Amino acid sequence: MKPSKRLDLIPPYLFAELERKIAAKRAQGIDVISLGIGDPDRPTPAIIVDAMQEAVSEPETHRYPSNRGRQDFRQAVSDFYMRRFDVELDPDTEIMPAIGAKECIFNLNLAFLDPGDAALSADPGYPVYTGGPLIAGGDPVLMALLPERGFTPDLSAISEADRKRAKLMFFNYPNNPTGAVVRPGFFEEAVDFAAANDVLAVHDNAYSETTYDGYRAPSFLATPGAKDVGVEVFSWSKGYNMTGWRCAAIVGNADAIAAYWKLKTNIDSGNFEAVQLAAIAALSPDADGDVREMNALYLRRRDLVVDALRRIGVDVTPPKGTIYVWAPVPAGFEDAAAYCEHVLEEAAVVISPGGAYGPNGEGFFRISLTTPDDRLLEAVQRLGRLAA
Q: What is the pLDDT of residues 280-303, one digit of tens each?
C-alpha cells in the first residue's frame, strides 16, 4: 500500500517527533523532563468538568449534533466576545463551533485554497499554517516574524505575485512560538492588506486568555473593518486546560463561516453537544477565577525560567502572553537543533528548536511552561549545570 504523494510534501510533525525521542530515552531508564510540548499539566477546572458530567447524562446530547452548533453555545460565545473584547457577533451567522483550533485552521485551507493558490503564513509559526496549505494543494508563502519588528510581519514586503495568489493569511497574537503580543497598528495593517488584496485574514486566537503583567490581549475582530475581511479562531484548549476536549469556535465574517460550514457538513458530524455545554460553563464569569489562577501559576513559572536562563547568560525577554518562553540559542552551536540535541543528550531535558517552526525561528529555542513546578525547577537547574 502506497500513501498519497501529498504526505511526501510535509515533514514529520514536530511534536510527534518529540514524543518519539522522549519515549526512546525513557525506555533506556533515563529521567527525561519535557519542556517541549504545550499541554497544560493542571486538570480542567471543576466548573467545566461538572457541566460536562451533567451534560453526558442527558440523552439529548447523545444524538448527532448540528455542524452549526447549539444555539446556546453560539449565544454564549457571542456574550463572551462582547464582555471580554467588546465585539458584537451575530450568533446565527457569525459563530460556529469547531473540533479544535488545529482542525479548524486546517479545514480553512480545504475550504479556500485551490491548486496554485497561496496562504500567507507566519514564520516562525504553528506548523499547521504551512502544512495545511500543502496538504490542501496550495502553497505556503512565509511572512518573516523578526525580533526588530516585534515578531509581526512586514506586509509591504510581500511580493505582487504572492499577493495575487494569496487567498488566506494566518497570524496569531499572543504568538506561538515567540510569546510576542501584537504591536500597535498591526491589526489595522492586516485589515487594510486583506481588503486591498481580497485575502481572508485568519487570526488564531489560542492564547488571548493567557497573559501577564496586566496585559489583556485584544481580539482581531475589535479592529474596524476586521469582520469584513477576516475570521478569528477562538480556542478553549490553553486558557481553560481543555486541550483534550477539542473545542474551538470560528467567528467573524459570515460568508467565510458559511463556506466553512459547507465543507464541514461533508467532513464531520460536529462537536459532541456535551462538550459544547461544558464550553458554555467555561465562558461564564464564574470561571474567570480559574483563569486568573492558571495565569498566576504560569507567571510564577515564567519568572522561574527567565531568571534561570539569565543566570546562565541567555538574553531572554519575559513574554506577556502564551505558555512559552522564546530564547536565543547560546553561542557555540551550529543551529537550534544542535543545541536542543545537546541539551537532550547531556541534561535529559527536551526543548523545541526554533527552526522547527520555520526558517526565521532559527537561532532560538522554545520552552513550555506546562510542567509541574518541581520538575521545571529541576530542568532549569540541569540547564544551569550544563552551562557551567
A: 999 999 999 999 999 999 999 999
Question: Domain 5-43+289-387 falls in which CATH fold?
Answer: Aspartate Aminotransferase, domain 1 (3.90.1150)
Q: Whole-angstrom Cα distance, residue 232 to residue 172?
A: 9
pLDDT for 15 equals: 65
Tell me: domain 46-286, CATH 3.50.50.60, correct? no
Q: pLDDT digits over 21-64, tens only?
A: 788 888 889 999 999 888 999 999 999 999 999 999 999 999 99
* Residue with more model confidence, 13 or 199: 199
The DSSP-derived string for 255-295 is HHHHHHHHHHTTT-----HHHHHHHHHHHSGGGHHHHHHHH
Pairing of strands 230-235, 248-252: antiparallel
Give the per-residue pLDDT at 313: 87
Count the residues in the chain: 388
Identical fold, 5-43+289-387 and 46-286: no
Strands, E assignment, the chain: 33-34, 95-98, 118-123, 139-144, 166-171, 200-205, 230-235, 248-252, 324-328, 349-350, 352-353, 364-368
- Rg of the Cα atoms in the chain: 21
